[in-house]
């Protein structure tokens, strides 16, 4: 009997069906829409690396741009470096960390920079352009970038709603190749990811965009009209930290909530898998002290973090608490720092579940919503102080009788609870539910 031996792919970043389809595109503008985990960005970066290494291309300038530099640092730049190292191409001496430029042996350069203002689109001309997750960019910036590109323009995005590509370009130009990729074009996905994606088939609106890669509708988005800001104003007042715990499959998300000018500012502190409770506590101990509200489904984690001297309380959960928390957030004027890359992505993709007929249900999609949960815990505790008034911070070396202890000084005690204590005209008692 003949035994067939399949050679193992030596690369972590494989050439999958999505890569093959991308290499087949020929027109000047190459537009790639797609669902989640479809290998859009990685496959385009593989094409760019191949182009820059080709001896037929010399002294060319290729630009990878996005709406913010933090978005590139946590996305395309990481993918580029990992692909180069995975395939044995990487040379530290050819990477300029300051300018975020890699100069290949052929003399070709690949640069990464943000185009969050119109003036940045007026830079030098280039040969190749890749606009990564291009839908947040304004069309006036996009048009200027295209005009200043000599050869090929790449675009990629998740089609969560209509934007300038559909209104200003598609059907109006004859130099566009437009394809749609899905997770089925990425054979490198493991079975657990595939099962998670396919578990959402019953949610029509989500499945259209993230399963099938087709154009969705804005009506299903839960949050809208957040403003992206460069940094936190000096006058902003830190109010809360929110934590949603993860570990192996999901990241732990930590967000800071500031009050400023009648609204709230969200700032992403951490978004990482496999964070131990001690590591979470170390992150928080290096920040300004304020009340922390964490996922109440993890009481052990909360207690371990509290033992590190931090004031942390569980979020309120119960019938209707999720929708009530969402309503609290929807009622606020929200800004978010541009460095909060993962949280911005969650915000743009956080939707209501729809049934098989497309009817919107009053239930949020429980997928990639870690920061959305963390900020909901925090803001809900601000808008409804009674949510945290039944808990007490107690000394780790004191066992309370009947699980009830007198109030002890809490670093970061919110002003609204301090006022409640003053009004009571006696020491305010908090309770720890164990």
Give a brief description.
Helices cover 29% and strands 21% of the residues. The chain is built from 14 helices and 17 strands.
Helices and strands in order:
Layout: H1 17-23, E1 29-34, H2 40-53, E2 61-66, H3 69-73, H4 76-86, E3 95-96, E4 101-103, E5 109-114, E6 126-131, H5 139-147, E7 149-157, H6 164-169, E8 176-181, H7 191-198, H8 204-211, E9 227-229, E10 237-244, E11 252-260, E12 263-272, H9 277-285, E13 292-294, H10 299-306, E14 312-314, H11 321-330, E15 334-337, H12 341-349, E16 352-354, E17 360-364, H13 370-383, H14 415-424
Parallel strand pairs: 1-7, 1-8, 2-5, 2-6, 6-7, 9-15, 10-13, 12-15, 13-14
Antiparallel strand pairs: 3-4, 4-5, 10-11, 11-12, 16-17
Question: Would you kindly provide a written description of the structure presented here, covering whatever features stand out?
Answer:
By secondary structure, the protein is an alpha/beta fold. The protein has two domains: 17-210, P-loop containing nucleotide triphosphate hydrolases (Rossmann fold); 227-384, Nucleotidyltransferase, domain 5 (2-Layer Sandwich). It is built from 14 helices and 17 strands. The strands form three sheets. It has an eight-stranded mixed sheet with strand order 3-4-5-2-6-7-1-8, with helices on both faces. A seven-stranded mixed sheet has the order 9-15-12-11-10-13-14, with helices on both faces. Helix 1 (17-23) crosses helix 2 and helix 2 (40-53) packs across helix 4. It is globular. The N and C termini lie far apart (64 Å).
Low-pLDDT runs of 5+ residues are 1-8, 392-412, 419-434
- Biggest sheet statistics: 8 strands, mixed
Q: What is the fourth-level CATH superfamily of the largest domain?
A: P-loop containing nucleotide triphosphate hydrolases
Instruction: Estimate the helix proportion, in percent.
Output: 25-40%
Q: What's the CATH class of the largest domain, please?
A: Alpha Beta
Please report the total strand number as a whole number: 17
Q: Cα distance, first to last residue?
A: 64 Å
The Rg value, from CA coordinates, equals: 25 Å
Q: If you consult CATH, what is the topology of the largest domain?
A: Rossmann fold
Counted by DSSP, the helix tally is: 14
| Strand coverage percent | 15-25%
Mean pLDDT: 87
Query: Spatial order of the strands in the main sheet?
Result: 3-4-5-2-6-7-1-8
Structural class category = alpha/beta
Shape-level CATH architecture of the largest domain: 3-Layer(aba) Sandwich
Principal-axis shape equals globular
Structurally, the number of domains stands at 2
């Amino acid at each position: 009997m003949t035994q067939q031996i399949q050679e193992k792919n030596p690369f972590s970043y494989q050439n999958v069906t999505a890569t093959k389809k991308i290499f087949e595109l020929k027109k000047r503008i190459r537009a790639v829409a797609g669902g989640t985990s479809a290998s859009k960005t990685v496959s385009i970066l593989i094409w760019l690396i191949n182009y820059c290494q080709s001896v037929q291309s010399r002294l060319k300038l290729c630009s990878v741009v996005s709406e913010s530099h933090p978005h590139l640092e946590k996305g395309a730049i990481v993918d580029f470096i990992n692909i180069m190292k995975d395939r044995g191409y990487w040379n530290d001496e050819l990477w300029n960390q300051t300018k975020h430029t890699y100069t290949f042996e052929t003399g070709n350069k690949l640069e990464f920079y943000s185009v969050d203002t119109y003036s940045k689109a007026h830079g030098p001309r280039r040969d190749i352009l890749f606009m990564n997750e291009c839908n947040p960019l304004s069309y006036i910036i996009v048009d200027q970038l295209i005009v200043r590109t000599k050869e090929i323009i790449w675009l990629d995005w998740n089609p969560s709603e209509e934007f300038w590509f559909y209104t200003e370009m598609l059907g109006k130009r004859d130099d566009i190749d437009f394809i749609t990729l899905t997770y089925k074009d990425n054979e490198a996905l493991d079975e657990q990811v595939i099962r998670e994606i396919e578990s959402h088939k019953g949610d029509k609106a989500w499945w259209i965009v993230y399963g099938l890669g087709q154009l969705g509708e804005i009506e299903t988005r839960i949050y809208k009209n957040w403003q992206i800001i460069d940094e936190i104003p000096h006058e902003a007042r830190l109010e809360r930290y929110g934590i949603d715990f993860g570990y192996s499959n999901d990241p732990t998300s930590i967000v800071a909530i500031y009050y400023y000018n009648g609204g709230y500012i969200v700032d992403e502190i951490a978004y990482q898998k496999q964070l131990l409770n001690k590591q979470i506590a170390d992150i928080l101990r290096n920040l300004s002290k304020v009340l922390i509200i964490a996922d109440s489904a993890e009481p052990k984690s909360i207690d371990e973090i509290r033992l590190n001297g931090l004031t942390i309380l569980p979020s309120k959960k119960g019938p209707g608490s999720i929708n009530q928390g969402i309503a609290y957030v929807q009622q606020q004027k929200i800004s978010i720092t541009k460095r909060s890359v993962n949280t911005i992505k969650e915000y743009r993709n956080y939707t209501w579940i729809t049934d098989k007929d497309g009817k919107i249900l009053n239930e949020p999609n429980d997928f990639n919503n870690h920061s959305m949960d963390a900020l909901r815990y925090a803001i809900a505790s601000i808008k409804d102080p009674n949510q945290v008034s039944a808990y007490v911070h107690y000394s780790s070396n004191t066992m309370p009788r009947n699980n009830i202890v007198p109030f002890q000084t809490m670093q970061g005690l919110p002003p609204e609870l301090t006022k409640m204590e003053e009004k009571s005209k006696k020491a305010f008692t908090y309770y720890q539910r164990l």
